[in-house]
Amino acid sequence: MTAVEERVAMELSVTRRSLPPFEIVEIGGEIDVYTAPRLREAVVAAIDEGHTRLVIDIEHVAFLDSTGLGVLVGALKRVRGDGGSLDIVCTNDRLLKIFSITGLDKVFGLHDSVDAATAVPE
């Protein structure tokens, strides 16, 4: 394992679970230029498996940079192309400020819990 791979393994956790019709992707750690590819792989795998209603839970994310935002925007474009949706669970004021400053709070559905995100009508 290289130093970069080791860093990725230590600083990002990705867990997926199904809550039909939603696929929940829970992220922990830091989403940056080093870890974003792992997030992208998890999201692309979910979409490739036919999941088009995604909920990305970033409640346990301490840091999110532009690379991570790019992954989320790319995933949103893919699921919307298939008539799907991508909602984000986040209550961290620092991360919510990033979504607000970039205008992405108008693009993504932002929710304070997985329950709230999965209560969104089709």
From TrEMBL:
Organism domain of life: Bacteria
All residue ranges annotated as the STAS domain in the record: 12-121
Protein name: Anti-sigma factor antagonist
One of the record's GO molecular function terms: anti-sigma factor antagonist activity
Functional description taken from the UniProt entry: Positive regulator of sigma-B activity. Non-phosphorylated RsbV binds to RsbW, preventing its association with sigma-B. When phosphorylated, releases RsbW, which is then free to complex with and inactivate sigma-B.
Keywords: Phosphoprotein
Family: Belongs to the anti-sigma-factor antagonist family.
Organism: Aeromicrobium marinum DSM 15272
InterPro entries documented for this protein: Anti-sigma_ant, STAS_dom, STAS_dom_sf
Pfam families per record: STAS
Organism ancestry: Bacteria, Bacillati, Actinomycetota, Actinomycetes, Propionibacteriales
Gene3D superfamilies xrefs: STAS domain
